[in-house]
């Protein structure tokens, strides 16, 4: 089972990173999906989508085991936010094949994002970054990816449609392998702040809230 790690973030929160090496059949056996999930899985035309869908849920199932929660599957709301069936624990997940990340917390709202830095970020950065953030990133691909991951994390925490450029702000940070920043979300003139951790790994960048 190629989970890179399951890490305790605090007493109520755990993180899992998965490197997909199994076949679709092996992942399906690990998940043992319910009939409704089987029909969803069979509806995917892309094998990549099947891998990510399965591995994300196997990752969540592994975290549930650590938390002493019996995994009965996931459901999603209209915004695509995942929820555990018959559990009040909060979950979040992200994937960028062949990697999957998942986060679980017993009570608090959470968000996580994993991305592989790509050149496309330079072309679209103006769509999701403020002028100040663009200047701070200095066109560095890892910095741009951290900003993107941070705002995706905020989006998942807030669970509502918000404008990445105008309603989110990420404070300046020092570009390093592992660091912290603060993300802010502005809705109806109310500002909410979240402490975020970012990690620059060999093949991907990861962010999640603390």
In short:
This protein has 210 residues and is of the alpha+beta class. The chain has helices spanning 24-31, 35-43, 47-67, 120-128, 131-137, 141-158, and strands at residues 3-10, 13-19, 74-76, 82-84, 90-96, 99-105, 112-115, 168-170, 178-187, 190-200, 205-209.
Characterise this structure.
The chain has 210 residues and is an alpha+beta fold. The chain folds into 2 domains: 3-110, 4'-phosphopantetheinyl transferase domain (Ribosomal Protein L22, Chain A); 114-209, no CATH class. The protein is built from 6 helices and 11 strands. Helix 1 (24-31) packs parallel to helix 3 (47-67) and helix 4 (120-128) packs across helix 6. It is globular, with a radius of gyration of 17 Å. The two termini are 27 Å apart.
**Assembly type:** single chain
Number-wise, the strands total 11
The overall pLDDT, averaged over residues, is 96
Estimated share of beta-strand residues: 25-35%
Radius of gyration: 17 Å
CATH homologous superfamily designation of the largest domain: 4'-phosphopantetheinyl transferase domain
As laid out across the biggest beta sheet, the strand order is: 7-11-10-9-8
Helix content: 25-40%
Order of helices and strands: EEHHHEEEEEHHHEEEE
* Estimated structural class: alpha+beta
- By CATH, the topology of the largest domain is Ribosomal Protein L22, Chain A
Question: What gap, in angstroms, lies between the N and C termini?
Answer: 27 Å
Number of domains: 2
Low-confidence stretches: none
In CATH's first tier, which class of the largest domain applies? Alpha Beta
Largest β-sheet summary: 5 strands, antiparallel
Shape: globular
Number of helices: 6
From the 3D coordinates, which CATH architecture of the largest domain would you assign?
Alpha-Beta Complex
């Amino acid at each position: 089972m190629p989970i890179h790690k399951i890490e305790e973030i605090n007493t109520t929160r755990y993180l899992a990173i998965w490197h997909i090496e199994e076949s679709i059949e092996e992942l399906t056996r690990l998940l043992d999906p319910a009939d409704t999930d089987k029909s969803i899985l069979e509806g995917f035309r892309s094998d990549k989508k099947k891998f990510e869908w399965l591995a994300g849920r196997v990752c969540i199932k592994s975290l549930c085991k650590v938390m002493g929660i019996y995994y009965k599957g996931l459901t999603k709301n209209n915004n695509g936010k995942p929820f555990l069936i018959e559990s009040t624990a909060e979950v979040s997940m992200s994937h960028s094949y062949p990697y999957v990340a998942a986060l679980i917390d017993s009570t608090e709202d959470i968000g996580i994002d994993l991305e592989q830095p790509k050149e496309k970020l330079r072309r679209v950065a103006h769509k999701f970054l403020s002028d100040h953030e663009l200047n701070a990133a200095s066109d560095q691909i890892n910095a741009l990816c951290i900003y993107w991951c941070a705002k995706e994390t905020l989006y998942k925490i807030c669970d509502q449609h918000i404008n990445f450029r105008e309603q989110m702000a990420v404070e300046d940070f020092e570009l390093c392998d592992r660091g912290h920043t603060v993300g802010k979300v502005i809705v109806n003139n109310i500002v909410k702040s979240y402490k975020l951790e970012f990690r620059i790994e060999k093949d991907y960048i990861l962010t999640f809230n603390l």
